[in-house]
Fold this sequence. Notes:
alpha/beta; TIM Barrel; 3-stranded antiparallel sheet; 9 helices; 19 strands; globular
Amino acid sequence: MGKAKEALLYMREENGTVRCRLCAHACTIAPGARGLCAVRENDAGTLRSLVYGRVVSRAVDPIEKKPLFHYLPGSHAYSIATVGCNFACLNCQNHEISQYPKLHQGRIAGEAAGAEEIVAAAAASGCQTIAYTYTEPTIALEFYLDVMRAARSAGLGNVWVSNGYFRREADEQLVPLLDAINIDLKGISDEFSRRVVGAEVRPVLDSIARVHAAGVWVEVTTLVIPGLNDSDDALRQAAEAVAAVSPAIPWHVSRFFPAYRLLDVPPTPIATLERAARLGREAGLRYVYVGNVPGGGEDTRCPGCGARLISRLGYAVRENRLRGGRCPDCGATVDGVW
């Protein structure tokens, strides 16, 4: 069982309270209480991470599943997760583990695991990267930084799948060890974000901009939920927000399926996703993908001539025509880590 390690990024305040500085919630936590993530606890004035060395899930995944389409396509990532999350998304597909402490009277599930063991398992499985995914990786920063250091020493990449709600203090520690990240831009309005995920939008947009500026490869995903974030205005504004950071950032508009507390909302119509993709391209984004839908919406096309360069079926790469990061037909450079 992993020990309750002292957390990074917090301040001691009066009367034994602490203020967490890890994510944008900036929780003020009384003695004996936990933050909104339910995995960081005030132990008599010392903030402790309850998930250090506690892995609840691990698997070998295609990198495309993250989804990361412009980072080592066709490779595999050794994916790990701990319990807990600083969001409470009504549609969470992984709520059994993301909300585990809240659903089980604060209990912390997970098997004991060390950084070196995880890296050895990743290397033995033939993976080129370790992915910190399934739940929000920010809330396990102390543990994941140790894993990331070990991975970097072993020549493996580090990729995050994140809601982007971390503060600048966190990414200052994270960025030197991070190779790629997919950030969920769940919606563009605070009204939607507060209602569906329990957060605000600006910290997510700020994280996208900061991490991209630091040189990390960034992709963005928006799950399009009927009746909630699927209007033309909402989709256009989301695309414009991404394009304002860089038109080279791939934008994944993914199909929603009923889950968790949104079981009464129907799956996203294909036409809605096609509309979202069109709005993304009109906003100036070079690479827009339609996710969770069979067909050609996940193929990579040349930003210059439009030729199909990477063909995908589900999470599998069927053909990769890129040559040194360039289109073999017109010679245009294709943004990414190839």
